[in-house]
Design brief:
Layout: H1 10-27, H2 29-42, H3 46-59, H4 72-75, H5 79-96, H6 101-113, H7 117-130, H8 135-148, H9 152-163, H10 171-185, H11 188-197, H12 204-216, H13 227-235, H14 243-255, H15 259-271, H16 275-292, H17 296-306, H18 317-333, H19 337-343, H20 345-348, H21 355-360
Helix pairs in contact: 1-2, 2-3, 3-5, 5-6, 6-7, 6-8, 7-8, 8-10, 9-10, 10-11, 10-12, 11-12, 12-14, 12-18, 13-14, 14-16, 15-16, 16-17, 17-18, 18-19
C-alpha cells in the first residue's frame, strides 16, 4: 500500500487500509502500529507520521518494516523534523548492527541527503554486497553519483540493475536519475528517450523536472504535459495539499510557458496561510512566470532573496537543485555570467561530468515568450482558505 497508494483513488485506498487494519488486529500491536503509520503517510500527514514513528521505534527498535516509512521526516518542509529523522536513523542503524543491509541502505540515503556523497557511496556498496537487490541502496548510490557527476558510469550501473527486474518499484524513478546523468554528460537524446518511453501521463513531476532542465540548457524537450491536465491536477482534491507536489506542477506550467497560469498560482500561493507556500513557493512560481515571459532580471531578484529557504520546498537535494539551475539561467540571461559561474562553482569543480552546468552558464539571445496558458485573469485556483 505504501508503494502503490499514489495510483489509487480515495475510496480504494480507504478500503485497502480498512482491510489492513482488520488483519493487523489479529496479528498484534506491532502490526496495528505499522498500519497506522501507513495510514498517516498515505494521507500526507507527514508530521503526525513522524511523531508516530518515534513512538513505534521506542517499542520495536530497528524495526525493518517501519523503516519504509522514514521518508515522513523529510517529505515536509520542517528542518527540525528532518534532523529528528536523521538522528533516528543513526540510532536505529547502530542498534541493528553492520549486518543489516536495510539499515545500512537507510544510512547511505541519509548521508547522501546530508551532502556526504563518498560516505553514502561506500555505505550503499556495503549494503549491496549483502543484498544486491536493495532498491534503497541503489537509490542512495544514484543520489551520491549525482553529487559527483558520475555520468555514463552511473547510467550503466542503473540500467544493469534494472535489467534484472524491469518490474522493480524504483524502475521509473531510477530511469529519471539515469536521465539526469545523461543530461550531465550531454547525451540529450537519451534524456528525451527515457522521458518519452518510461515516464507516462501520470508522471508529471519527473517529466516536467526533466523538460525544464532541458529547456534551461537550451535543448529541445521531450513529450510535454498538456496545460489542461496540469490545471486539473491543481484543482483536484489534495492537488495543493503538499508544497513540493505543487512546485512540480508549477514546473509543468513553466515547461508550457503558461505565464498567466503561473501568475495565478503565485497569487494563490502568496495568499495561503501556510508559510512554505506564501514565503517560499510564491516567489519561486513568480520567478518562473518572469522567466517564461522573457524577464530574467526580476526572476533573479526573487530567487536570490530566497537563499536557503528553498529547502522549505520539501523534496530532496537533487530535486531542489532545479531552483539553483533556474537562478543560474536567469543570471546568465540577465547579463551576469560571472555571478552564475560563482553560483555553480561547487558543481563544475567537483563533478566529473557537467556539460549541463556549462550550458546553464552560456548566455543565449533573449528568447521570445512561448505562447501558452490562459489570457490574463482567467486562470484561478481554489480560495486558499
Amino acid at each position: 500500500m505504501l508503494a502503490t497508494s499514489d495510483g489509487l483513488g480515495d475510496a480504494e485506498l480507504r478500503a485497502e487500509l480498512v482491510r489492513a487494519h482488520r488483519d493487523a488486529q489479529a496479528a498484534g500491536e506491532r502490526a496495528v502500529s505499522l498500519v497506522l503509520g501507513v495510514f498517516l503517510f498515505t494521507h500526507r500527514q507527514y508530521a503526525r507520521a513522524a511523531d508516530h514513528l518515534e513512538t513505534h521505534f521506542d517499542r520495536w527498535p530497528a524495526d525493518e518494516v517501519a523503516a519504509l516509512l522514514l521518508d515522513a521526516f523529510a517529505t515536509g518542509s520542517d528542518a527540525g523534523c528532518l534532523k529528528r529523522g536523521e538522528d533516528l536513523v543513526e540510532r536505529q542503524c547502530e542498534l541493528a548492527g553492520p549486518e543489516s543491509w536495510l539499515w545500512t541502505s537507510r544510512l547511505a540515503w541519509t548521508r547522501a541527503e546530508q551532502g556526504r556523497p563518498y560516505e553514502a557511496y561506500e555505505l550503499a556498496a556495503r549494503a549491496l554486497e549483502r543484498n544486491p537487490r536493495s532498491g534503497l541502496a541503489v537509490h542512495a548510490r544514484a543520489h551520491a553519483e549525482q553529487e559527483t557527476g558520475a555520468g555514463p558510469a552511473s547510467v550503466l550501473f542503473i540500467d544493469r540493475w534494472l535489467a534484472a527486474d524491469p518490474l522493480a518499484v524504483q524502475f521509473k524513478h531510477l530511469n529519471w536519475h539515469a536521465a539526469l546523468q545523461s543530461l550531465a554528460a550531454g547525451d540529450f537524446a537519451d534524456v528525451r528517450r527515457r522521458a518519452d518511453e518510461v515516464l507516462g501521463h501520470e508522471d508529471v513531476g519527473m517529466r516536467s523536472a526533466t523538460n525544464w532542465r532541458l529547456l534551461l540548457a537550451g535543448q529541445v524537450p521531450a513529450r510535454r504535459c498538456q496545460v489542461e491536465h496540469v490545471r486539473e491536477l491543481l484543482t483536484a482534491p489534495g492537488g495543493t495539499a503538499e508544497v513540493f507536489h505543487t512546485f512540480n506542477l508549477a514546473l509543468a506550467l513553466a515547461v508550457e510557458a503558461a505565464t498567466d497560469d503561473l501568475d495565478a498560482l503565485a497569487r494563490w500561493s502568496a495568499a495561503d496561510e501556510r508559510p512554505e507556500f506564501s514565503q517560499v513557493l510564491a516567489p519561486v512560481v513568480r520567478a518562473l512566470a518572469h522567466l517564461t515571459a522573457g524577464r530574467p532580471e526580476p526572476a533573479v531578484d526573487l530567487l536570490v532573496r530566497l537563499g536557503r529557504d528553498v529547502e522549505r520546498l520539501g523534496g530532496v537535494r537533487v530535486e531542489r537543485e532545479i531552483v539553483q539551475d533556474t537562478l543560474a539561467r536567469a543570471l546568465a540571461d540577465a547579463g551576469e555570467p560571472d555571478h552564475a559561474a560563482e553560483l555553480l562553482h561547487h558543481r563544475t569543480s567537483t563533478r566529473r561530468h557537467h556539460v549541463y552546468e556549462n550550458l546553464l552558464l552560456t548566455a543565449v539571445p533573449p528568447r521570445a515568450r512561448l505562447r501558452g496558458g490562459l489570457p490574463s485573469g482567467e486562470a484561478s485556483w481554489p480560495n486558499p482558505s
